[in-house]
Design a protein that fits this description.
It contains four helices and no strands. By secondary structure, it is mainly alpha-helical.
């Protein structure tokens, strides 16, 4: 019966890992979507960067919350990648805020913040998210 209870426990742990990863991944995808919308040159009518960044922040906070509640269930490699995603997303959001801040000088300084945010949103983050996806898939299907 010891084997049985240990199998049951590892089955429950795996179930919790899967649930957590599904929530975290979905929220990260949404956060990236909103960041990319905010960082992109073209906007939909009535779409404000501040609103997009707020939505990004909400999804990022939800992912972070799910992550912190389940951190002990998530392996070190995936934890490292998730931390990297959070840090880079936060950093890109800050760059966008600086790019739009009235005190930021027009020209190269402002453009530099936009370029850095775009680089992160369209190049860095999608590859980090892909690495998270691959790692999460391995956990889910193990």
């Amino acid at each position: 019966s010891d084997v049985c209870s240990s199998d049951l426990r590892s089955s429950r742990i795996h179930e919790r890992q899967v649930d957590a990863l599904l929530v975290i991944h979905a929220k990260l995808e949404q956060a990236l979507f909103y960041l990319q919308r905010a960082a992109s040159a073209g906007k939909f009518a009535g779409e404000s960067d501040q609103e997009l960044l707020q939505r990004m922040g909400r999804d990022l906070a939800a992912a972070s919350d799910a992550f912190s509640q389940n951190k002990l269930l998530i392996g070190p490699e995936l934890t490292r990648k998730l931390d990297e995603f959070f840090n880079e997303t936060f950093s890109a959001g800050m760059d966008l805020n600086w790019a739009e801040h009235p005190m930021t000088p027009n020209g190269e300084t402002r453009a530099g913040f936009f370029d850095k945010a775009r680089e992160t949103a369209f190049k860095k983050l999608p590859s980090i998210l892909e690495a998270i996806r691959i790692e999460a898939r391995a956990v889910i299907h193990s």
